[in-house]
Amino acid sequence: MKRPTAWLLRKPCPTCGRPLAVRHGKGERREQICPACDGPDPLHSPKALGWTKGSLRPPQRPQKH
Q: Distance of alpha carbon 25 from its chain centroid, rounded?
């Protein structure tokens, strides 16, 4: 019996090394989660992406004239 080779193309989990699974999110968005570690990549979560697109910025230093 031949195994399908699609699992070879999936990214490994950075923590445990197992292949990541695809979970369908809102709309056409897809998330990659690790079935063993049980959770999506926190840097690609909607909350983290919202923080980067938000209006808060670090304070600017005053420029000397």
A: 12
Chain position carrying tokens 């910025």: 57
Residue written as tokens 């808060």? 56
61 pLDDT more than 80: yes
From 19, 15, 22, 23, select the one nearest 3 (Cα to Cα).
Answer: 19
| Three-state secondary structure call for residue 23 | strand
Total Cβ atoms within 10 A of residue 5: 7
Six-digit token string for 19: 């292949």
Please determine, for residue 19, whether its predicted confidence score (pLDDT) is greater than 80. Answer: yes
